[in-house]
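User: Hello, can you help with two protein structures?

Assistant: Certainly.
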Amino acid sequence: MLEGKVALITGGAEGIGGAAVRLFAREGARVVFCDVRKEPAERTLEEVRGAGGQVSFFEADVSREEQVEALVRHAVATFGRLDCAVNNAGIAGESAAVQELELADWQRVLDVNLSGVFLCMKHELAVMVPAGGGAIVNVASGAGVVAAPTLAAYCASKHGVIGLTKTAAVENARTGVRVNAILPGNIDTPMLQRTMDIHPDVKKIILKSTASGRLGRPEEVAEAALWLCSDRASLVSGESMLVDGATIAR
């Protein structure tokens, strides 16, 4: 589905990002991915290369503009172009009521989850627009359209990603660059497992609120990103696609 295309995936060491790296490479894309965690990233890199995929890892923190700019330059230098991107890097942050949340904790989540997406799009678009086209998928969350009690910063950041996605989509409606968001529900990722381990009460709420009765798989979210990045979604831009087994719709 992505034969001959070059894809950039942030937060690609594991979870949804790791699943996207493996899937995009399997579907014919040449993939550059970044993360701040070298050990799991190197495992993913070795796995994809072992399966015959063309992939490159670049260590980068998406909240640092100079590192994002270097990441995009690396993608173009390595594979000659940039056709699509999945801006997936994100953190959950501290669990606390609004009045108990420290400013530093609030700021860190927004720096990664919202400013990180902005910085990635800024530099991805700077390459894609002159080239005449491309596709960007921003990973938001079901928490981007409903409340997420005790996760105010995460919730606010994901609401922001959706607004940012719509704005960029309208701005680029005639440039050939499509911009969409996917909104995963409760997905069985290392980040969610860590949150549930730390907060058993959150685990109970999550499992009870999942309409399908199960956690989603990272691969299921990656499939949605794959379609949005492919030419099969040629008229889809500005969309916020829920991938949550009807949990929000309930």
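That covers the first. Now for the second protein you mentioned:
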Amino acid sequence: MYDPLRHWGFVGGAKKTVGIIGIGGLGTMGIKIAKALGHNVVAISTTAAKEAMAREKGATHFVASKDPATIQACAGMCDIIMNTVSASHDLNLYMPLLAKQGVLVQMGAAMAPHTINQLPLMFNRLTIAGSLIGGVPSTEEVLQLCADHKIWPDF
């Protein structure tokens, strides 16, 4: 969860808004890391059932992706969205959450192709990218960040 933030300029810079799709083990670590880096965090899940837990971990906003009102409430807010979901799902649902020139980073490996509406990409200069775990320097940095902020996985 750290390396995409590092790669896209979210470490050591201005406070931004980070969206995280999938509020499971990986997503909750992402919330904690983004919050420790000083960013606002939008937790995104299919239902409102995970809102309290996401806020407890540090999310400042919550989107239930099946509730259009919550999507509208956070429209254009996210500078980056990290997608941890590995199941097939509609990425177009999340595009309105991205700010102009925002990036959606695919981290969950869905095996089925995703269909994307190109107009929002073009009009808002949006980017869809992918990321794997970083190398040794990135891993050392995130371990130090976690030690400094007392961040650990939930059991």
